[in-house]
Amino acid sequence: VETTRLETFSDGVFAIAVTLLILEVRVDRSGSLAHDLVAAWPSYLAYVISFLTIGIIWVNHHTVFGQIGRVDRTFLFVNVLFLMAVAFIPFPTSLIAEHLGEEEATPAAFTYGLTLTVTAVCFSALWFYAVRAKLLRSDADPATVAGISRSYLPGAPLYLTATLLALVLPNLSVAMYAGIALFYVVESSIFGRKVVEGGRS
Amino acid sequence: VETTRLETFSDGVFAIAVTLLILEVRVDRSGSLAHDLVAAWPSYLAYVISFLTIGIIWVNHHTVFGQIGRVDRTFLFVNVLFLMAVAFIPFPTSLIAEHLGEEEATPAAFTYGLTLTVTAVCFSALWFYAVRAKLLRSDADPATVAGISRSYLPGAPLYLTATLLALVLPNLSVAMYAGIALFYVVESSIFGRKVVEGGRS
Amino acid sequence: VETTRLETFSDGVFAIAVTLLILEVRVDRSGSLAHDLVAAWPSYLAYVISFLTIGIIWVNHHTVFGQIGRVDRTFLFVNVLFLMAVAFIPFPTSLIAEHLGEEEATPAAFTYGLTLTVTAVCFSALWFYAVRAKLLRSDADPATVAGISRSYLPGAPLYLTATLLALVLPNLSVAMYAGIALFYVVESSIFGRKVVEGGRS
Amino acid sequence: VETTRLETFSDGVFAIAVTLLILEVRVDRSGSLAHDLVAAWPSYLAYVISFLTIGIIWVNHHTVFGQIGRVDRTFLFVNVLFLMAVAFIPFPTSLIAEHLGEEEATPAAFTYGLTLTVTAVCFSALWFYAVRAKLLRSDADPATVAGISRSYLPGAPLYLTATLLALVLPNLSVAMYAGIALFYVVESSIFGRKVVEGGRS
Fold first, then answer.
1. Do residues D4 and C200 touch, judged by C-beta distance below 8 A?
2. Per the CB < 8 Å rule, is C11 touching D9?
C-alpha cells in the first residue's frame, strides 16, 4: 500500500513537471505571427528533448520500483531529492528555449546539463541505496537487478560530458542531450519489445 | 499493477493539461472591465473547445486501455509521444485565444489543427501498435476491438482537413474543431447510453 | 476499476485547480513590501474562498461517487462539463483578487458568481442524471440518496442570488460567497461527525 | 477505499505545490546570462528549502495516514484547511526568492514563516482531532501513536520562533527554515532506517 502512495506522489511530480514544460513555450513577437511561430523552433526543440528525457526517467523509475519490496525513511528522502532535480528541469528548459542559437547559449546549455547530471546522480543513488539497504523484493530477479545496475552507470558521466561540452560548443551539447534521449527511445523500442508486465486482469 | 501506473501517469497529464488551459484565459485591458470581459470571448471559446477535445481524448484513452492486457517498452514510448502531443495543446489554444477574429487568425488556427492532427495520429499509432503487438487482453471482445479500430480512422484526416482549411478560412476552421468536439459528445451521449462498466463494488 | 479511473481524473482536476489558485496571488508594488503585502488582502481572501469552495465541491463529489455503481458515456461527458466549470474557477478568482474593493468590483463578482452557479447546475445535473439513468449501486441507501437530492437543490439558486446581488452590491455578494462556504464547513463539522466510511483496512 | 481517495487528493496537492515552485525560479536580467544565473541564487535556495519542507510534510502526512482507520466530515475539512496552507507555500517562496539579501527581506521571511507556522498548526490539529475523535485504526500501535503526538509538538513553536526572528534578522531566520528542514532529513535518515512498510507484494 505504502509503495503505491510513493509511486502516486512520484508520478504526480513527473506528470506535472512534464506538462508544465508547455508554459515555457512562448512566441516572441517581432514580425508576422507565422514568421514568429517558425522562429520559436528552439522552444519546440527544448520542449521535445525535456519531455522525452523526463518520459524516459519515468519509464526507468517504473522499472526500478518493480524490484522494490519495501522502503525506509532514507529511501523516501533520497526519492524527494531525486524529484527535486526532476521538477527543476522546466527552468533550464526555458533557458534553452530562449537562448539556443544565440550568443548566450553556453550558460543555458551548461545549466541544462548540470540539472540532468544531478538528476542522473540522484537516480543512481536511489537505486544503489535500495540495493545496499536490501530493499529489493525477495523474489527480485538477479539478472534484472544486475541489468539495472549496469544500465545506470553511463548516465551521469554521459550527461557530465555533454555539460562540459557546453562550455565550448553549446549547440553540439544540446544535440547530445537530444541524441541521448533519442538513442534510448529507439534502442528500447527495438530491443525492449519483450513484455514488461502481466497487465490489469 | 503496472498498467495502473501507466494510466495514473496518463491521467495526470490529461488532468494537468486540461486545468492549465485556464492560465491562457486572460483579459486584455482597453476599456471598462465589463467590456473587456465580453471582448475576451475567443479565450472562453478556445478554453471550451480544448477542454472538450482533451476530455474526449481522455474518454477514448480510457476505452482503449479497457482492452489492453499487457504493455511493452515500445508501447510505453508511443504513449509518451502521444502525451507529448496532448500536453502541447495549451500552447496553440493560447494562440487561438489571442488571435481569433483578428488578421493573424490563420497561423493560430493552423498551429492548433496541426497539433490535433499529430495527436490523432499518435493515438491511432498507440492503438494499432497494441493490436499488432498482441497486447490486448485475452478476453477482449472482437466486436469492441473492431469498433475502436474503425472509429479511430476518421480522426486524423478530419483534423488535417480543418488544418488545411485554416489557410483560407481560419474562422470556419475553428468552427470545425468545435463541431468535431460537439458532434462527438452529442453522438456519444445519444447512442452511447449503454453501460460502460460494472463499477466499484 | 473504471469508476476508480474516473475518480482519479476528477481528483486530479480538483487538486490542480485548487493549487493553481496560488498563481493568482500577486503583490502589486506601490509602497514598501510590508505595506503592499497587507494591501494584497483581497488576493488572500479570494484564495481562501475559492479553495474552500472547491474543497467542499470535492467532498460532495466524493459523497456522490460513494453511491454510484456504474457509469455510462453520457455520465462521463456530464462529468467533463462539470470539471470544465470547476477548472474555470481560478480565472474569476483572479478577477476578485484584483478588483475587490475597487470601482470595477461588480463585473468581477458577477463573473465569479456566474461560474459558481454554472458549477452548481452541472453538479446537480451529474447527480440527477445518475439517479434517472439508474447508475446508483444496487445497495445504495434510499435515505442517503434522498438526502443528497435534497441537499443539492439550494446550491444553484443561492449562487444565482449572490450573482445578481453583485450587480448592485459587489462586496456583499463576495461576502455571500464566503458565507456559503463557511456555513457549509461549520454545519458539516457540527452535524456531520458521524463516520463517513470504514477506512483502509 | 475512501481513505485512498483522500490520500490521492492530498498527494495531488503536495505534488503540484512542490512542482509549481519551479515557476518562481526566475532570472532577472541585468548583466551577462552567466552572471545573472549566479545572482539568482536566492531563487535556488528558496526552491530547495520549500521543496524539502513540503517533502517532509508529505512524508509525515504519509506516516499519520498509516494510523488512520476511518474519517469523518470534520476530518475532511481540517485536511482541506491543512492543504490550503501547504498550497500557499509557493507564494512566500517567491517573496524569499526575490528579496533575500535585500533591504526588504524582513516582510518576505516573516510571511514565509507565518505560512509554515500555520501549516504546522493545521497539521497538529489534523492529528490531534484524529486521536480525540477516535479515528485511528483499531490495531494502531500505542507507541507509534505516542511518538507521532510527541514529534508534532515542537513544529509550530519552532517555526513561530523563526518567524519572529525575521523581524530583526531575516537572513538568520531563513537559515533557520533551512536548518529545520536539513535537521529533519538527516536525523530521519540516520535514526529512521528501520523499514517503514511491507511493500507492494
1. yes
2. yes
Q: Which residues contact B88 (CB under 8 A, 6 or more apart)?
A: A22, A25, A47, B115
Q: Which chain C residue is nearest to residue D88, measuring alpha carbons? A: C22
Percent of chain C, pLDDT > 70?
Answer: 93
Distance between CA B83 and CA B86 in Å, rounded?
5
**Cross-strand bridge partners of residue D70:** none
Q: How far apart (Å, rounded) are the C-alpha atoms in residues B164 and B166?
A: 5
Query: What's the rounded Cα separation, in Å, for the pair C135 and C6?
Result: 14
Chain A residue numbers with beta carbons less than 8 Å from the beta carbon of D62 are: 2, 5, 76
- Residues B156-171, mean pLDDT to the nearest whole number: 94
Min Cα separation C24/chain A (Å): 15
| Residue that the C-alpha cell 525477495 belongs to | A138
Query: If DSSP codes are grouped into helix, strand and coil, which group holds residue A111?
Result: helix
How does DSSP assign A65-97, residue by residue? Answer: HTTB---BHHHHHHHHHHHHHHTTTHHHHHHHH
Does residue B23 belong to the interface with chain D, where contact is any CB pair within 8 Å?
no
* Residue contact A16–D16, C-beta within 8 A: yes
Q: How far does the CA of residue D168 sit from the closest CA of chain A (Å)?
A: 31
**Radius of gyration, CA atoms only, chain A:** 18
Evaluate whether C24 touches C93 at the Cβ level (below 8 Å).
yes
What digits encode the pLDDT tens for the residues C88-112?
999 999 999 999 988 889 999 999 9
Contact, A42 vs A97, CB < 8 A?
yes
Q: How far, rounded to the nearest angstrom, does the alpha carbon of residue D129 sit from its chain's CA centroid?
A: 19
Mean pLDDT value across residues C36-57: 93
pLDDT at B14 over 50: yes
Beta-carbon separation of A47 and B133 below 8 A: no
d(CA C15, CA C149): 25
Is A40 in a helix, a strand, or coil?
coil
Alpha carbon distance, N-terminus to C-terminus of chain D? 18
Contact indicator for D173, D113 with CB cutoff of 8 Å: yes
Q: Is the pLDDT of residue D46 over 80?
A: yes
pLDDT grade, residue B192 (50/70/90)?
A: low
For residue B94 the three cell numbers come to: 493560447
For residue A101, give every residue at least 6 positions away whose Cβ sits within 8 Å of its Cβ, in sequence order, or none: A42, A171
Calculate how close chain B gets to C125, using CA atoms only, in Å.
Answer: 14
Q: Is C17 on the interface with D (CB under 8 A)?
A: no
Within an 8 Å CB–CB cutoff, is residue B165 touching chain C? no
Question: Chain D window 99-128: which residues touch A at a Cβ cutoff of 8 Å?
Answer: none
Please say whether the dihedral angle defined by the alpha carbons of residues B178, B179, B183 and B184, taken in this order, is positive or negative: negative
